[in-house]
Amino acid sequence: MTGTEENPVATARALTQATRAVVDAAVKQGAVTTKNGALIDDHQVLTERLAYLATQIRAAEDLVAYVERVSDDLQGRLALAYAAEVAHATRSQVESGWDDFGLTEADIAPLHTAEARAAIRRGMSEEAIRAIGRQMIATAGVNNCELEDEVATLTRSVARDFAKGVVAPVAQEIHRKDLMIPDSIINAFSAQGFFGSSIPEEYGGTGMGDLPMVIITEELSAASLAAAGSLSTRPEILIKALLAGGTEEQRQQWLPRIAAGEELVAIAVTEPNIGSDVASLQTKAEPAEHNGVRGWRINGAKAWSTFSGRATVIAMLVRTDLDPASGSRGLSLFMVQKPAYDGHTWRYEQPEGGVISGTANPTPGYRGMHSFTIAIDNLFVPHTNLVGGDTGINKGFYLQMGGFAAGRLQTGGRGIGVAQAALEKVCQYVVQRSQFGLPLSEYQLTQYKIGLMAVRIAAARQATYASARGFSTRAVEPSMAKLLACDIAGDVTREAQLLHGGWGYSEEDPISRYVVDALVLPIFEGVKPTLELKVIGRAILGG
Ligand SMILES: Cc1cc2nc3c(=O)[nH]c(=O)nc-3n(C[C@H](O)[C@H](O)[C@H](O)COP(=O)(O)OP(=O)(O)OC[C@H]3O[C@@H](n4cnc5c(N)ncnc54)[C@H](O)[C@@H]3O)c2cc1C
């Protein structure tokens, strides 16, 4: 890198370029070591490290690129601080394990120049981060970053009003009493058109695209992860699967109803004994006929199917090629219709003779939708409900994975929303609470901790927005955004809780809800190690 320019954005850009050179060298060597990803399981720790470094530098680049476009003083300082943090993390990771990375001192040289070292010191300087913290506290942590898009800006304002007016007043009660989201929220959510934000207009959606969808999610998740922010995750997964592989008739039939909130969607992939290893799913569907209608009979069990009680359609991935060796090439995606139920248990006996029932798993957080273990006994599903019809047979895995990419993007938005809620809450608390004669906000350590929260949230936010702008079901960036945003949500909520002291441990304070809600984020839509090894690792090492 050249020169430690006064302009923080130019310095941040130079720093990301230097870091990128080191990360690229490490990934290139990693591809050799793992034989283009084929031997990842023989090098899991290396792959996990590379996936994380690649994710962090990508986020730093997204944040710097954003600031270059909008030229905003605060965002510029956030960008420099994050670029410095990532450069430092990369340098120390690689330096402490040259042999593991297969690199030499020369490979890390870009981060050892006098300019790079000075830029890292400048970006990570305690005073610079404390200044960001003070600014956050003065503005109550509120996020009004430039969105560069009129529709997105309007969407944020509408979603924020909705979150504060409709969701926030009931969020804590839903959490504490483990209630189902009330119809009032679901109906108002539908009326706003939130379910259809990423559905094209020709199929009854608003066609606003993926960025507004992420922004709606972010704003609603700040009010409640489970009672609003996650409402569109499930439809998003099915929407993308239908758009990618549904027949035209299925798109015409289902998408307008999903957009209108007339069909509420749940997803059932996970089974009691199978989670990450989706290709090994055992619940099976066999060809059948009922009253002259061609269909399938499904038998087996699913686990953790969120919202499947209240849902009217469950997108269920099951084995249609009963030869276990068929693996991922033997699965199909069905749309299983059922009545809506509110409670923690439900049971539906079909006129066709099949039975499906669910029992909610008790959880410390993510309350409002309930996540069910499901038993499926001889359930009849018409062939018209197999996504893709005849051509969809045994193609379900690929449709589901494409849908998961959308779910991961959306979960990036969920992570930022929860982290943002914690940031705003702690900014309010530290000015109200005094100890040793001073408000907590006056202490240097408080300012520093809050400054760091803001830096990391800004990076996760721009990484998620960038992957929404360029969304494709095959892209790795949504997975990177998900990985980073969910980790940051965990870190930020716990730090914010600590700043509340004992009161942050009280169930009465929403900060304790943010902590338990954030805990689930790295688990679903691809548990963190699986996301790192099987999705991001494969993508970056596979060339
Ligand atoms: C609240 C909640 C809601 C959910 N909602 C849904 C839903 O609506 N629909 C749905 O289908 N699922 C849902 N899930 C399930 C979720 O997607 C799974 O929990 C997730 O995919 C991980 O699967 P698992 O729990 O079986 O963990 P496992 O696959 O058993 O993994 C556990 C751990 O084992 C290790 N591990 C596994 N494989 C490897 C490997 N190859 N190499 C190294 N380490 C490995 C990792 O450390 C991993 O974290 C939900 C889960 C929760 C908690």
What's the gist of this structure?
This protein has 17 helices and ten strands.
Topology summary:
Layout: H1 8-33, H2 44-70, H3 73-95, H4 98-101, H5 114-123, H6 126-138, H7 150-177, H8 183-191, H9 210-223, H10 225-229, H11 233-245, H12 248-259, E1 265-268, E2 284-290, E3 293-306, E4 313-319, E5 331-337, E6 345-349, E7 355-360, E8 371-382, H13 396-432, E9 434-435, E10 438-439, H14 444-469, H15 477-499, H16 510-520, H17 528-541
Parallel strand pairs: 1-4
Antiparallel strand pairs: 2-3, 3-8, 4-5, 6-7, 7-8, 9-10
The structure holds flavin-adenine dinucleotide.
Flavin-adenine dinucleotide binds at residues 44, 267-270, 275-276, 304-306, 363, 366, 371, 520, 523-524, 527, 529-530, 533.
Give an overview of the whole structure.
Helix 11 (233-245) runs antiparallel to helix 13 and helix 13 runs antiparallel to helix 14 (444-469). The chain has four domains: 8-124, Butyryl-CoA Dehydrogenase, subunit A, domain 3 (Up-down Bundle); 150-259, Orthogonal Bundle (Butyryl-Coa Dehydrogenase, subunit A, domain 1), CATH 1.10.540.10; 265-396, Butyryl-CoA Dehydrogenase, subunit A, domain 2 (Beta Barrel), CATH 2.40.110.10; 399-525, Butyryl-CoA Dehydrogenase, subunit A, domain 3. With 543 residues, it is α+β, with helices and mostly antiparallel strands. The strands form three sheets. A five-stranded antiparallel sheet has the order 2-3-8-7-6, with no helix packed on it. The chain has helices at residues 8-33, 44-70, 73-95, 98-101, 114-123, 126-138, 150-177, 183-191, 210-223, 225-229, 233-245, 248-259, 396-432, 444-469, 477-499, 510-520, 528-541; strands at residues 265-268, 284-290, 293-306, 313-319, 331-337, 345-349, 355-360, 371-382, 434-435, 438-439.
